[in-house]
Amino acid sequence: MNISRYDCIYCKTRDCSILKNCNYETLQAISTFKVCGAIKAGEHLFSVGDEINDIFFIKKGFIKIESMGRNGRPLILKIVGKGAILGSRINIIDKHTKHTFSAVAGSDVEYCAVPNNVFKGIVTKSEILKQEIINQSITDLHHAETKAANLALKSVRENLAEALLMLAEVYRYEDKNQSFSINFCRQDIANLIGTTKEQVSKILKDFEKEGLIKCTAKKFHFLNIEGLLALANNDQAITATGNS
Questions:
Q1: From CA 53, how far away is CA 35, in angstroms rounded?
Q2: Per-residue pLDDT tens over the stretch 182-234
Q3: What's the pTM value of the predicted model, to 2 decimals?
Q4: pLDDT tens track for 129-179
């Protein structure tokens, strides 16, 4: 079978995904059945209760993973970007046939989709891919437990510091680049830490006065990573030790 430039083996995103260590046969099988697509910022890739018809690989952009909070507002569980895979854990590991959270585009998103029944067959033939999915499931569970504990035990200031560090990681912030623009508004950040946008705006202003950040609207010109880490890692709070 001929390899085209659209095949997974040539995809730069593969190096930051669970497909990184997969062999040629696995990559070619996924390439054979995948369909590429795109959605605009604000559109849903899927919603809570939708049937799991496809497994999604994110090639470009950012996705907000959301559930509905007790106050009726969405709670952003995490933000994922290039290299993320969605739908695999509950499809391969669990018995669920429907999505238990929503995936909403935080920016324009490009993705590849593989039918879930096809993906299951590919996984059964690849121990490497199966183990990668199990590892991701463990990481996701740890993240969910840690987030729940942090929301209960940390102050809003500490949770906001941690959220900024997470955004810096997702957007690959580096001091030498001086700045980065996010696709998320104050309300999105509030939904990420279970508070109000008014509180977020107030604390961001406080952070600026304290020399922790410099920002204008959605653009962060500077992040004091060490200072934010010191605030987020309060000894009295539970902090995450794994990747999100």
A1: 13
A2: 878 898 899 888 899 999 999 999 999 999 999 887 888 889 999 999 998 87
A3: 0.77
A4: 999 988 888 888 887 778 778 777 889 999 999 999 988 888 777 766 667
